[in-house]
Write a structure and sequence with these properties.
five-stranded antiparallel β-sheet, single chain, about 150 residues, alpha+beta, 5 strands
Length: about 150
Amino acid sequence: MPGKARSHRLRAGRHSEAGRIYHIRMTCHDRHPHFNTLWKGRCVVRAFQASTDLAETLCYAVMPDHVHWVLRLKNDVTLSATVRKAKGITTRNWRALTACDEMLWQSGFYDRALRNDDDLVTLCRYVVANPLRAGLVRSVRDYSLWDAVWL
């Protein structure tokens, strides 16, 4: 059926493993650029900081219409619970800032488990370079909504 959400297919076969590194991509509803200002984007950053009990953030890039998040899952939590918490905190922060009650997130999320640590540096370079590839800035130093644990 065209137009019908198929986010349930994203969960098929999903398995969470403590200590595993995951690359998560969360997309704004209808790809709307909800995080088009520093203050709106900081709503996501604060959510990642509030989720340290569930996951260690290795790097992230908050784009206007989606977010890349590389994390290491902590013990006894699921990937879905971790993303649900981050999305929920972001939504509360964003609504308090904007006084807007429209949908913020597309349902579901995309994830990829890293197979080994060799992929981590390449992946984080990809994530951090997203604003460059999107043409938002000419240097990653000019973009404020990214971070990596190595800095």
